[in-house]
Amino acid sequence: MPQDLTLYIGNKNYSSWSMRIGVLLTQFEIGFREIKVRFDSFEPNSEFKKAITPLTPVGSVPVLVDNTLVIWDSLAIAEYLNEKFLERQLWPDGLPQRARARSLCAAIHSGFRGLRSACPMNIEADLSEVGAIAWRDNAALRADMHVLEGLLVDALQRYGGPFLFGQQFSIADAFYAPVVMRLNSYALPVSAPLAAYMQHITQLPSVQAWIADALQEKDFLAFEEPYRLHASG
Q1: Which ranges of the chain does DSSP label H, i.e. alpha helix?
Q2: Model-level pTM greater than 0.85?
Q3: Chain-centre distance for alpha carbon 33
Q4: Helix H segments across 160-202?
């Protein structure tokens, strides 16, 4: 397939936003060219901002370029890909399922700030001790996990699994793949149904490929993981 699409991403070890679209494209076998823009900092004069800001005024990743069209924000990119590749059925089949899937994507896109701030994605590191302390001390994290359990387990039971909306992978699963990475790295307590879903997502070829690339980076950034500095100091 001609690779007319170009996806700009950040470091695979850290960039949950980039992972959503990278996994989505790979899982649906949509050809694309990948350009990684290394995080150095998010200051206006950083190399990262200098590379991304000419593409999008918001200065963040992911960014999808389709010929002369530039789309940014993972939710907007997912919707664009769904419209461009309607035959691939990136959203679940059925109006109620699609509405529910969009609600789940919107929830993780704009919410769960307690989980996201306490447990930033870091695929490479074993952060089980950090996760245990955060679980003990962080009420916002525990509240977010309670809601997350309810949403995901309800979808798995309502639609029969193994994916959130039945037998087929969808945009919703791509959006929760980085959440699975967080839960794995921080070893947060989860129910048996959610643990089974996490294992299923982790073993997908598209997710395995992303993990393999993340492990190869070995580009540890102080502002992304201060706990590593404390441990080594």
Answers
A1: 16-27, 47-52, 74-84, 95-110, 113-118, 128-137, 139-159, 171-186, 192-202, 205-217, 226-232
A2: yes
A3: 19
A4: 171-186, 192-202
